[in-house]
């Protein structure tokens, strides 16, 4: 079983209510939900949040919610959020956790191709990088066994040169990319 976890906290230090900011008339989190729903390999989708507003939005779109407490609501390593979700869901059938950051709405990578690459090459984790080779976090795919053991052995990378939204200028850039159809939110160019 493969699950997607979208870590969407209510508040951000850089932008108020960042995950619900409007991009092309939709909340930013919408694009990550759509990205996950278009996958043929992801069996179940969860949003991890501390926000009532985000929880309500996720449920409106038939997405399951994992509530997180104050300990995981601040600036927290995202791997802790994925681990928390995996433990709360508590399903031994889960073999892969696909972490989809909502603040990269114009991602270009195909999630199914990334999952298949991880499995074919027998990596423990796959992370996305920008064109400079720096981890950008748009997608983080982990074998659940490695995540539970807090041990990531072999790590693969794939390029996904998308916008990482930190401020309103980034938000406008991502919106332009989506409106100009330079990005198909299925993950294919």
Write a short abstract of this structure:
The protein has 189 residues and is an alpha/beta fold. Helix content is 31%, strand content 23%.
> What class do helices, strands and sheet pairing give?
alpha/beta
Spatial arrangement of strands, main beta sheet = 5-4-1-6-8-7-9
- Spans of at least 5 consecutive residues with low confidence: 183-189
Portion of residues within helices: 25-40%
Shape: globular
Please count the helical segments. 6
- The N- to C-terminal Cα distance equals 27 Å
Largest sheet, strands/sense/barrel:
7 strands, mixed
CA-atom Rg in angstroms: 15 Å
Strand content: 15-25%
Overall pLDDT: 87
Order of helices and strands: EEEHEHEHEHEEHEH
- How many DSSP E strands? 9
Question: Can you put this structure into words, describing what you see?
Answer:
This protein is 31% helix and 23% strand. Residues 183-189 have low confidence and may be disordered. With 189 residues, it is an alpha/beta fold. It has a 7-stranded mixed sheet with strand order 5-4-1-6-8-7-9, with helices on both faces. Strands 2-3 form a two-stranded antiparallel sheet. It contains 6 helices and 9 strands.
State the main characteristics:
two-stranded antiparallel sheet, 189 residues, globular, alpha/beta, single chain, 6 helices, seven-stranded mixed sheet
């Amino acid at each position: 079983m493969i699950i997607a976890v979208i870590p969407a906290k209510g508040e951000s230090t850089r932008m108020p209510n960042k995950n619900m900011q409007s991009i092309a008339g939709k909340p930013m989190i919408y694009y990550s939900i759509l990205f996950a729903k278009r996958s043929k390999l992801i069996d179940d989708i969860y949003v991890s949040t501390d926000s009532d507003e985000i929880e309500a939005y996720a449920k409106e779109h038939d997405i399951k919610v994992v509530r997180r407490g104050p300990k995981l609501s601040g600036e927290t390593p995202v791997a802790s959020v994925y681990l928390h979700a995996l433990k709360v869901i508590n399903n031994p059938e889960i073999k892969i956790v696909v972490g989809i950051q909502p603040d990269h709405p114009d991602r270009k990578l195909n999630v199914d191709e990334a999952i298949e690459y991880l499995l074919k090459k027998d990596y423990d984790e796959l992370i996305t990088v920008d064109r400079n080779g720096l981890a950008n976090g748009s997608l983080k795919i982990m074998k659940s066994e490695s995540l539970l053991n807090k041990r990531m052995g072999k790590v693969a990378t794939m390029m996904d040169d998308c916008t990482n939204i930190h401020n309103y200028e980034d938000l406008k850039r991502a919106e332009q990319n989506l409106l100009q159809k330079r990005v198909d939110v299925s993950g294919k160019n």
